[in-house]
Design a protein that fits this description.
The chain starts with a helix and ends with a helix. It has one domain: Aldolase class I (TIM Barrel, Alpha-Beta Barrel), CATH 3.20.20. The protein has a nine-stranded parallel beta sheet with strand order 5-4-3-2-1-9-8-7-6. Helix 6 runs parallel beside helix 7, helix 10 runs parallel beside helix 12 and helix 11 packs antiparallel against helix 12. By secondary structure, it is an alpha/beta fold.
């Protein structure tokens, strides 16, 4: 059983929902990422979603796009992100870490080389935004070889037959995008999210985590009531960007996540 599957199973046994924070590796500074990851775990993170900086993050909104720009300006590459996970694993062997990004950096490294390096560093899963299930064979073969999970997005517009096709290739969990458009959008309809999550569960036994539009305890509480996990990204990246220095950035992000953790836990109480 993978670390991600084990984490969801353990949470379900305790009646809890997963909290999955997203940050861009190397934003706001290279030296910030690993201490920030540890502080997010201390604040209640169950799985860390680490964004791989990319020059054209087309599925992300302005807040996360700026995070990618800052990380790239800091010289962060996919190799550097993997090194950050290796450093994180020295003190935390348990918290699952998911790399989220775009196909180009992984293809440039080579699927087999990426899988070997990421697995050796302690990466648990990969989510590539722009590789559809019809084209996933190459990377999927290498991820399965090293027992890494392959995470897929499901959108509000994804038809049932395609959800079934995605679910057949996915492992770990399915990531439901609560809104049409890019990350950081402002509003979602909880009843609509609940209907779509039910549709996904009818086609897959995998846990369903929901992201996009979750920015505070209230929005997290509403989503945690209908999903197995809650993903928060733009709000954290924005908190990091607004802080005056790196120490303040870590403190601000951890405080925001602790508040969101309280909201998630409130849904189960």
């Amino acid at each position: 059983m993978s670390r991600i599957a084990g984490r969801f199973q353990a949470l379900a046994a305790r009646g809890r929902k997963a909290l999955i924070p997203y940050i861009v590796a190397g934003d706001p500074g290279v030296e910030v990422t690993v201490p920030l990851m540890h502080q997010l775990v201390a604040a209640g993170a169950d799985i860390i979603e680490l964004g791989v900086p990319f020059s054209d993050p087309m599925s992300d909104g302005p807040v996360i796009q700026l995070g990618h720009e800052r990380a790239l300006a800091n010289g962060v590459s996919l190799t550097g992100v993997i090194a950050m996970v290796r450093e994180f694993r020295r003190d935390d062997p348990d918290t699952p870490v998911l790399l989220m990004g775009y196909a180009n950096p992984v293809e440039h490294m080579g699927y087999a080389a990426f899988a070997d390096a990421a697995h050796a560093a302690g990466v648990d899963a990969l989510l590539t935004v722009d590789i559809p299930p019809e084209e996933v064979d190459g990377v999927d073969t290498e991820l399965r070889r090293v027992a890494m999970d392959n995470i897929f997005l499901v959108a509000p517009t994804t038809p049932g037959e395609r959800i079934a096709r995605i679910a057949a290739r996915a492992s770990g969990f399915l990531y439901y995008v609560s809104l049409k458009g890019v990350t950081g959008a402002a509003h979602f309809d909880v009843a609509d999210v609940e209907r779509h999550v039910a549709d996904i569960r009818a086609l897959s036994d995998l846990p369903v985590a929901v992201g996009f539009g979750i920015k505070d305890a209230d929005s997290a509480r509403s989503i945690a009531g209908v999903a197995d996990g809650v993903v928060v990204g733009s709000a954290l990246v924005d908190a990091l960007a607004r802080a005056g220095d790196h120490t303040a950035a870590i403190e601000a992000a951890a405080a925001l996540l602790a508040d969101i953790r309280a909201g998630v836990d409130g849904a189960a109480s």
